[in-house]
Design a protein that fits this description.
about 280 residues, Rossmann fold, 9-stranded antiparallel beta sheet, two-stranded parallel sheet, globular
């Protein structure tokens, strides 16, 4: 059997995973793999360091929500994942390149979202800081605390897919641009998502009666919302969102305030280590 050597590094501060992954890639190139033990935020840091390099990345889900890992492993426990690691294979996946009002380019590995769901995320972070024992339950508690504060927000949206242009200037409660299938501790906005098809999935919730929201939340959780007339969905390759107000958004869980969001899908941007292929074309 071939001997495999491991180099274990613990992150100490924000963006440390990005620094460690970049240093490892410079040293090893395609002769090593970065296995991230963490959640979506740590994965995002590593992906931003390794995009466009020869170094592959994999994941062991040890974070709070592990939403991107749900796309890869569904409900597998970490022990089962480890037992099957020797069956893994390498295949590149897409990333979503994003630019906000600060003009800085950031890659999104999983989901970029804006509006009410980011308000929930912000509340969940606050609850976790005050009550860390809540863990993933903080997301559900945040929904209950925030549901009476639901508002719609004005957005002008341009989305492009195969040279067709989608344009709307309207109010929406929330929106998501998805590479992966899950976010927000298991909500499933992109149930048919593939990580290597060169597209993202745009989801927009129309400004609807608050009485409809609880039922739609349940559908959104299960991924059964695609036929709802109140939710607009379409494939997208690039686009832009602007607003006269500040847009509260998040990229793989990191929260930003911005007046503009630009995105573009970069196909096969990241070499990746997989155990299964149900999420690939």
């Amino acid at each position: 059997l071939q001997k495999i050597s491991f180099l274990i590094r613990e992150t100490k501060h924000k963006n440390h995973a990005q620094e460690l992954a970049r240093d490892f890639s410079c040293q090893k190139e395609d002769s090593g793999v970065v296995i991230v033990c963490g959640g979506d935020g740590t994965l995002n840091e590593a992906a931003n360091a390794l995009a466009g390099t020869k170094t592959a990345m994999g994941v062991l889900p040890t974070g709070t929500a592990n939403d991107f890992s749900k796309t890869l492993y569904k409900d597998r426990e970490i022990e089962e994942i480890l037992k099957n690691f020797h069956k893994g294979f390498f295949s590149p996946i897409d990333l979503i390149e994003t630019k906000l009002s600060d003009h800085k380019s950031r890659y999104c590995l999983n989901v970029l979202s804006f509006g009410f769901d980011t308000i929930i995320l912000k509340e969940a972070y606050k609850l976790l800081e005050e009550h860390p024992q809540l863990k993933e339950k903080a997301y559900y508690a945040a929904i209950l605390k925030s549901i009476l504060k639901i508002n719609s927000y004005p957005y002008e949206i341009y989305s492009y897919f195969n040279e067709k242009i989608f344009h709307r200037n309207s109010e929406y409660i929330l929106g998501a641009i998805c590479n992966g299938s899950f976010y927000g501790n298991g909500f499933n906005p992109n149930p048919k998502g593939r990580l290597n098809d060169g597209t993202a999935f745009l989801v927009l919730l129309e400004n609807i009666s608050k009485y409809k929201i609880p039922r739609l939340i349940l559908k959104y959780k299960k991924g059964s919302h695609l036929q709802s007339k109140d939710i607009l969905t379409q494939l997208t390759q690039k686009g832009m969102i602007t607003s006269p107000e500040n847009i509260l958004c998040n990229i793989d869980g990191e929260i930003f305030n911005t007046r503009k969001i630009e995105w573009s899908v970069e196909k096969n941007a990241l070499n990746f280590f997989h155990l299964e292929n149900h999420h690939l074309n």
